[in-house]
Each structure stands twice: as structure tokens, then as C-alpha cells.
TrEMBL record:
PANTHER family in the record: 60S RIBOSOMAL EXPORT PROTEIN NMD3, NONSENSE-MEDIATED MRNA DECAY PROTEIN 3
Function: Acts as an adapter for the XPO1/CRM1-mediated export of the 60S ribosomal subunit.
A GO MF term: ribosomal large subunit binding
Name of the featured protein: 60S ribosomal export protein NMD3
Species in which this protein is naturally found: Cottoperca gobio (Frogmouth)
GO annotations of cellular component type: cytoplasm; nucleus
Residue ranges of every copy of the 60S ribosomal export protein NMD3 SH3 domain listed in the record: 249-295
Length: 504
């Protein structure tokens, strides 16, 4: 305890304390600090021990009346929460400073040193420092109560896509992680043809639905089930279900459009390749390089489906290639792609190298293919495709082979890949053995498509050193170092043990 007084402008002599007679500098109370302490206690009425409620399950603190906050130890948020506990008793004093004192991590105690000032006798300003001890008391929050009661969710968003490949789900997972929408979920459950997001409130579920509708082409249905009804207060308790169906088209799928839709998209060919799926379906005509985008509402009015699955991709070798320049399009033609080059190629299956069978086709990969390159494509000449619009087309307009992408050595690409992606924590029902291959396909798509990478957070993998080879001159696309982020790991303010302080 000490006096706070302005410095004297001229030298003054000492006076005697009116109580004990000790010489002291002049002050409004004419008393020394020891005597003033016996007369006045400015911290009177401020509690020296306070209880703070803490939930062990979700590691949050209760801020009365009903708010639960996530606060790290010795953080500004925890300091503000503790000060609010004693704020009502500090209306007659002025707070000068507050800070934490070190306590044992397992003591269930938080000590805070508080400095206050108050005007006392005859206008003297007295400053005092004291310690307030906050006792941690365990209390389960309402959210954790519902989890333990197995009745924890209020709304569920069921995302489904009727396809074999999960490329769209992998892309959607990265967008959710980037915008941190998974933080509001109570549980994430992955099933065979989709994924379910469980939420504790209907507002969070509606936010997820709005995000999905802006991110991927889809349509939604809403239903709710009555759980309980209070006839006295006329309140109803519902569980809501949002069913989201994503269009069944993935990247690298070959589709056949209806004649009416193809005409509305600039008289492009009916047989097209899907080069990307974002908020719209990006299509390209391999015969003319015309491109078009189909949104969700247009798709559901004029639906079309994939003609082949990724498992039906076959490997071809380029025997001859010829770039097509200055091609003239018909009247009413749409926009052409500037990123691709139209070419006519002769290809041969790697499985038929002992024969003389070759296939002729047009492709949009003229800027990538050279004689001797490996390329993946669909063989329509030797396949039986059951599609409504394809069966009605003139057989001469149906291509023998549709090339999709250039083929590179996957083992080399995996060895020199020095980046990684984050994943959501979720429950898996059945793990498909094909999931790892599909995930590798998605990583390769990110390397090949720069526009797709702009929406994804890519992190540098510090534990993996890329392997370079002198013979690796195939020119496979790679992710530049400038596009990678450093993975950030946050530790508690008290060190490594701080995170376990309240969990024992």
C-alpha cells in the first residue's frame, strides 16, 4: 500500500504523523502509510476467492449467464472473464493493473494480481495491490449434456452425390476447412455415397446449406421431425434435416448433352468433357474447343450423366499429332478456350501394341501431347454405352476415342510431392480400398489445374524431402513453393503442459 501524490514544486520539510509521530512527507491525511493501512482498507468488499465453472469435455469456461467461452490459460480472454467476475464489487475503486500469477498446472487454481486506487481521507489517493484466487469448479455445459444423452444434434446436413469417384467431396472438404465451417459441427460422419454434418443449432446448419449452394451445383430438400411439445408455454422442439444432392458429374467425366442444351450453350457438340467442377460444371468440346458452364438449376432442368467411370480409363500412346489452326466455327458458336490447343492425333492402346490397330480422334490436349507420350482416354469404339442422348446421335458424330489427360509416372510424382492437405476429423463407416487411389487422383488434379488450387490451402510438408532424378524430364506439373503455406501449430500460453492443466 502506498500513496500516490504529485511531485512537489519546491523543497518541503517533513511533518510528523498525527498518530505515531514518525516524520513523513506532507500529505492530505497527515498520516504515514502504516497508520493509514490500519484505518482504511480500499479492497474491502472485493472477494479474494471466486469460483469459475469449467467444462472438461469441451474445455470451455462459463461466462454468466449462459455463454461458454474457449480461453487459453493466461490469455487476454481468460483475464477479461475473471475481471468480469469481480467487476460488480469494484464500482467504488479504480482498476489500475491486473495480471496472472503462476500456479501449478494441476492445482485447479488461477491467481490474479490486481492493482487498484481509491481516494480516502481529505483527498489522499491510496493504491493497493492484492491477489484474487479463482477456484476451478467442473460443470458440464448444455452441449456436452446433449452429447452424453445421445440426443445432441438439432439439425443435420446430408450431402450426397451418386457417383463412383469422390473428387467433388475432396474438393468440398478443402473449401470447408479453408472457411472453417467445420468448427460449428458436433459430429461429421462419412458414409458410402456422401457425408453427414451434425449441428447443435438450426442456424449453423442453414449456414452450411447456404455455403454448399454457393460452392457446388446442388439442390436441397428440407424436412423436420417433432421431438417434444410443451403445451403450457406452446414451445416446440424439432430436429431438422437438410438433404443436399450434388450433381453426379466429376472432373474428367465424358458426358452427352441433350440437343436442346447443346444448342443453348452455343451450338457445341453433344459429347463433351468435364474439365472442372466448382460452383458450376465446366465443359469443353474436344472437337471445337468450345467451353461452357452449366449451373445447378440448368442441370436439373436438362440433366445429363457420365458415360464412363474413371475405372474405364485406358492408356494410349500417341503415334502422330497434327495441330489444327484457324478453325472456323459455325454461326452462333460460343466461347473457345484459350488455354487448350486443338489437334488431330493417332493413338494406339498400350495393351494392343502387338497389333496394327490405331484410332484417330480430335483432342483439346494439343499443347501437351507429343509423339510417344502416354495419354489416358475412353474407348467408345469397343464399349457398350447405354445413354438416352448418345443412342439417338448419328454414329458418325460419336468419336472412337475421347482423350482426357496426359499420363505421368505416379510413383515419381508421389516421391517428389513436398506438400500436403489438411483433413477433417470424421467417423468412417466403411473404408473403401479404392479411396487412396481416388485421393491421389485428386492431388494430381490440383497439380495440373492452377485455377482449382486457388480455392485450396496447400501446406508445405516439412517431413518430406522431394526426390529429384536426372532422368525425370517428363515435365509433370508441380505446385510451386510460393503457393504453399507453413502449417501453423498453436501451443498453450503455459507451455506444453498447459493444455493438460484442466483435463486431469
Amino acid at each position: 500500500m502506498e500513496y500516490i501524490q504529485a511531485p512537489a514544486t519546491s523543497s518541503q520539510g517533513n511533518i510528523l504523523c498525527c498518530t505515531c509521530g514518525v516524520p513523513i512527507p506532507p500529505n492530505p491525511a497527515n498520516m504515514c502509510v502504516a497508520c493509514l493501512r490500519t484505518q482504511v482498507d480500499i479492497s474491502e468488499g472485493i472477494p479474494k476467492q471466486v469460483t469459475v465453472n469449467f467444462c472438461k469435455q469441451c474445455e470451455r469456461y462459463l461466462q454468466p449467464p449462459t455463454t461458454w467461452m474457449q480461453c487459453a490459460l493466461e490469455s487476454r480472454e481468460l483475464l477479461a472473464l475473471c475481471l468480469k467476475k469481480i467487476k460488480s464489487s469494484m464500482t467504488k475503486v479504480r482498476l489500475i493493473d491486473a495480471g496472472f500469477l503462476w500456479t501449478e498446472p494441476h492445482s485447479k487454481r488461477i491467481k490474479m494480481k490486481v492493482t487498484i486506487q481509491k481516494e480516502v481521507m481529505n483527498g489522499a489517493i491510496l493504491q493497493q495491490v492484492f491477489v484474487v484466487e479463482f477456484v476451478i469448479q467442473y460443470q458440464m455445459c448444455d452441449d456436452c449434456h446433449r452429447v452424453e444423452a445421445k440426443d445432441f444434434w438439432k439439425a443435420v446436413v446430408q450431402v450426397r452425390q451418386k457417383t463412383i469417384h469422390r473428387k467433388t467431396f475432396y474438393y468440398l472438404e478443402q473449401l470447408i476447412l479453408k472457411h472453417k465451417l467445420h468448427q460449428n459441427t458436433l459430429n461429421i460422419k462419412e458414409i458410402n455415397d456422401g457425408i453427414d454434418f451434425y449441428f447443435g443449432s438450426k442456424q449453423h446448419a442453414q449456414k452450411m446449406v447456404d455455403f454448399l449452394q454457393c460452392t457446388v451445383p446442388c439442390r436441397s430438400k428440407t424436412s423436420q421431425r417433432l421431438i417434444s411439445h410443451d403445451i403450457h408455454s406452446n414451445t416446440y422442439n424439432y430436429k431438422s434435416t437438410y438433404s443436399m444432392e450434388i450433381v453426379p458429374i466429376c472432373k474428367d467425366n465424358v458426358v452427352c448433352l441433350s440437343p436442346r442444351l447443346a444448342q443453348s450453350l452455343g451450338n457445341m457438340g453433344q459429347v463433351c468433357v468435364c474439365v472442372r467442377v466448382t460452383s458450376t460444371i465446366h465443359l469443353i468440346d474436344p472437337n471445337t474447343l468450345q467451353i461452357a458452364e452449366v449451373d445447378g438449376s440448368t442441370y436439373w432442368r436438362y440433366p445429363f450423366y457420365s458415360l464412363c467411370s474413371p475405372r474405364q480409363l485406358e492408356e494410349f500412346i500417341v503415334m502422330d499429332t497434327d495441330i489444327i489452326r484457324n478453325q472456323k466455327l459455325g454461326a452462333g458458336a460460343g466461347v473457345r478456350s484459350n488455354k487448350h490447343v486443338l489437334a488431330e492425333v493417332w493413338v494406339q492402346k498400350t495393351s494392343e501394341m502387338d497389333t496394327s490397330q490405331q484410332y484417330h480422334c480430335r483432342t483439346f490436349l494439343g499443347h501437351l501431347l507429343n509423339i510417344g507420350d502416354m495419354v489416358l482416354g475412353y474407348d467408345f469404339a469397343n464399349s457398350n454405352v447405354n445413354d438416352e442422348y448418345l443412342n439417338k446421335m448419328n454414329p458418325q458424330r460419336v468419336p472412337d476415342v475421347v482423350l482426357i489427360k496426359k499420363s505421368y509416372d505416379r510413383s515419381r510424382r508421389v516421391k517428389r510431392r513436398n506438400w500436403k492437405l489438411q483433413e477433417m476429423q470424421r467417423d468412417r463407416e466403411d473404408q473403401d480400398t479404392d479411396d487412396e487411389r481416388q485421393y491421389q487422383d485428386f492431388l494430381e488434379d490440383l497439380e495440373e489445374d492452377e485455377a482449382l488450387r486457388k480455392n485450396v490451402n496447400i501446406y508445405r510438408d516439412a517431413s518430406k524431402n522431394p526426390v529429384e532424378s536426372d532422368t525425370d524430364d517428363e515435365g509433370a506439373p508441380r505446385v510451386s513453393l510460393a503457393e504453399m503455406l507453413e502449417e501453423l501449430t498453436l501451443t498453450d500460453a503455459t507451455g506444453e503442459e498447459g493444455a493438460e492443466m484442466m483435463t486431469e
